[in-house]
Amino acid sequence: MKPIVIETAPDNVKVKLDNRPINLPFEIRQQHHHHWEQQIGKNPSLRNGAAYTITKIDKNPEELEVTVAKTDYKHYLFTLHHEDCAAPCKVIYTCAAVITSDHHIAIGRMNEATSTPGRLQFTGGGLDESDLVGSIFDLEKNICKEIKEEMGVDIHSSSTRSFLPKFIKHKGSHDFWAVMYELSVHSTAEALHTQFLKHNQQLIESGQQPEFDELLFIPLEKAAIEAFVQNESSPMVDYLAPILEKYTES
């Protein structure tokens, strides 16, 4: 795996939309189509919605400005499964480290019906058209929505202690970028887990498929995190182990 870079988030992070859509060559679109047909044969629940690929990055210590253009989920999924492919879909997404009052960090295991079944990661997701305000993506709205959808936690409720951008992740296998938030809550790990199970049950009863099959809580202690990273056999998103290790440093 290519190394990733994790940096402290600058004061200002902006993601803006270039309204000119990506125009891919015919042969590349055909590759995406054939791969998509294979994937939906394995997982019929996949849907080919909008995705956004990075076209320009302006970065300095005080500000990160990312320009994206519209493409589709076929493009993203092909990139995810084909490292170093031509014309990759280089996405930017949000995620959040959720910290409980008894000093545990929450990690989700992706549902088998998703594009990354069984993968361990923080709550989060890709940008969506509903996050647009004019030509600017509202990143806080995006991650708040993901936390609510995946964990059943409303960050605007009294359960929130603090909520702020923490890190920026880039490089790695596909050079996907991530804006990482930290959400501290008043709930204990046990209480948050109970809330998560109730939330998932409500989703299932309404005919929806939860994003996370399971929510794990790792103590924010050096020995516990090192043991988890060394012994966990499930696939992990590329940022997970490095971010957990950063929390042991602090």
UniProtKB/TrEMBL annotation:
Gene3D superfamilies xref list: Nucleoside Triphosphate Pyrophosphohydrolase (3.90.79.10)
The organism's place on the tree of life at top rank: Bacteria
Name of the protein this chain belongs to: Nudix hydrolase domain-containing protein
Organism phylogeny: Bacteria, Bacillati, Bacillota, Bacilli, Bacillales
